[in-house]
Amino acid sequence: MPAFPLEPFRIKVVEPIRTTDRAERERLMAECGYNVFLLKAEDVFIDLLTDSGTGAMSDAQWASIMRGDESYAGARSFYNLKEAVDRIFGFKHFVPTHQGRAAENVLFSVMLKPGDAVPNNMHFDTTYGNIVARGGRAENLIADVAADPYADTPFKGDMDVAKLERFIEQTGPERIPLGMITVTNNAGGGQPVSMANIRATAEVYHRYGIPFFIDACRYAENCYFIQQREPGYADRPLLEIANEMFSYADGCTMSAKKDAIVNIGGLLCLNDDDLFLRVQNELILREGFPTYGGLSGRDLEAMAVGLWEGLDARYLAYRIAHTRYLAERLREEGVPVVWPPGAHAVFIDARAVLPHVPQERFPAQAIVTALYIEGGIRTVELGSVTFAHRDPQTGAMVYPDLELVRLAIPRRVYTQRHLDYVVEVVKHTLDHADAIRGMRIVWEAPLMRHFTARFALVT
Ligand SMILES: Cc1ncc(COP(=O)(O)O)c(C=O)c1O
Known about the structure:
40% of the residues lie in helices and 13% in strands. By secondary structure, it is an alpha/beta fold. Strand 3 (117-120), helix 5 (125-133) and strand 4 form a beta-alpha-beta unit.
């Protein structure tokens, strides 16, 4: 038997990828201010920037695109999507949005006032940004074990429920219009959250009368981990596990660009009738009519099909093993990777690789730069560029516990041989880690600076 499940698909369409030489990559990096978001994608050989919207759609999804109903209101494609959303998520209402952050924006615009707080196990950057941009406070209350990159525990994305309770007591439930949990926890290494923890989190929120929303981008991968790791779930079908997970919540936001394997799309689901009316009004103002929400009919069709494909047991077994293969190969080569690996990405612990580079010199960003120059691989920093912020009281910089380089794996795109190439490049780069001195920021935007900041190499 092979070491991990074979790809449960074969390749029907291919897209050539360009190779560049080192001198060209050095020039391209300098030209874009050492920010890989500003590179042209065609100058990238293996693109591990994100798993968001970068998956390969299936023949069934492409076929469904031809069936897209482009009617302005009440399109058949909306009802096809509704059937999948109702059966998987089970909330009373939903609207499509053009992506996850649009769902967040609509939700926060109707629920959040300046000075309010929103707790989460860990906010992703767009969630954090959307809360802060509205004058709110985004609070991370993840269990302490998440800060240890090597603690081999099955559900390292769990909320610290005692911390959550203390936070609500101190802040006052009237200042918390909603509470969240993110599954899986992208900002903390793509780690899953257990069903027991989701249940306990819901119980605390509800005891204080706080509506509970799940950030469900990678809910299917999280359900698979629950089935594999949590006692009592081994024989439960993934759909049932998803139904149970969402039954504890009052709603969810979802970027469909992840576990619905589409290139664009999102969802906002909720139970409350009055809130739904306000959401619809906001959606009409900002995104589009509630039966298309800023998408075309064909996008809704692809999402409806992709939601089922993303929850398929054979696909998820392959998906999680594919990612684990990369993590295991890197670990065999002595690369310090966050353990256990999550589903959508492998994370390199930049502080362990570059102990001589302090966080204010952005060690993870320096590794991202080095990997592109070495082998044309685009990865992303999830460390002090993305998450450091000023303390509102003292003005001092607060640095994140983890300083990570994320190698995100697009769904159904790269082969095992591509992953082997990634291992070779990472190993070669880290063999010369002593020469890496860090980066400094030359220009930055006030919010979500990582997308547009420009850097210089520290020599
Ligand atoms: C956990 C999480 N929440 C929200 C988002 C935002 O989704 P989108 O990029 O579709 O706006 C992302 C995207 O990466 C994410 O990982």
